[in-house]
Amino acid sequence: MPSSLTRRSVLALAAASLLAAPAAALASSTRIRVGATPGPMAETLEAAKPVAAKLGLDIEVIEFSDYVVPNAALDAGEIEANAFQNQPYLDNQIADRGYKIVGIASIINSRLGVYSRRHKAWSEVPDGATIAIQNDPTNGGRTLLLLRDKGVISLRDGVGYKPIVADITANPKQLHFLEVDAAQTPRSLDDVDAAAVNANYAVTAGLDPTKQALILEELKPQYTNLIAVRTTDKDKPWVPLLAQSYRSPEVRDFVLAKYKGAYVPTW
């Protein structure tokens, strides 16, 4: 399998190719179903709908409450596209489940944060605290990498994008890690000292990543969200229109005004 870096390069080239010139409008209206998680991912697709309609593309946004079902639904043909994941997550899903899915355009980026209802700063988090992290390899690994980058823990060399708790080589605060479904991390805040929460679930839960996170990730290109389709559909005429509609000035303005830095457009 190509590396994540290679896949990101291919994705960037694909997006550039799709958007090098405006795609021609469809001769007749085409309806597609696009899966997304609630909150920013679904909301930005809604913002793209009027742009798409002018090009003959009727987008129906289908919301999924977790990260697992959107790719299963896409692979099964229950939807035509999805917009909720980054490239490392898609790579992991393809490796584990054999999906024939490909990213066709990068869209918005965000930062993972660690939040708490009990403590106002990371320095207040006590030794032996319990930290909730995501139980899937990509997002849980992303949290461990964030904690490593901030000097909270050390990880063994060569862990890539998917370290696990067993890869921790130093844990000075003797933190306990509770692994839960990514969608449940905001709810876990009542029961743990702190929790790592992906931006979409943070925003939906009323958390402000730029103001409330005790630890906040730097923006990283590999975690940019993308639009994905089945490999067999990637050359269909509606695909460049979907990418063009999302990566439009209208959606860019919406993202900047609505999310105020919690999410940023990549175009």
Structure description:
The chain is built from 9 helices and 14 strands. Helix 2 (about 40-55) crosses helix 8 (about 240-245) and helix 2 runs antiparallel to helix 9 (about 250-260). Strand 1 (about 30-35), helix 2 and strand 2 form a beta-alpha-beta unit. The radius of gyration is 19 Å and the shape is elongated. The two termini are about 25 Å apart. The model is unreliable at about 1-5 (pLDDT under 50). The chain has a 5-stranded mixed β-sheet, sandwiched between helices. A 5-stranded mixed β-sheet has the order 10-7-11-6-12. The chain is α/β, with parallel strands linked by helices. It has helices spanning about 5-20, 40-55, 70-75, 85-95, 135-150, 200-205, 210, 240-245, 250-260, and strands at about 30-35, 55-65, 80-85, 100-105, 110, 115, 130-135, 155, 170, 175-180, 195, 215, 225-230, 265.
* Fraction of residues in helix: 25-40%
Major β-sheet annotation: 5 strands, mixed
Estimate the strand proportion.
Answer: 15-25%
How far apart the termini lie comes to 27 Å
Give the neighbour order of strands across the main sheet.
2-1-3-13-4
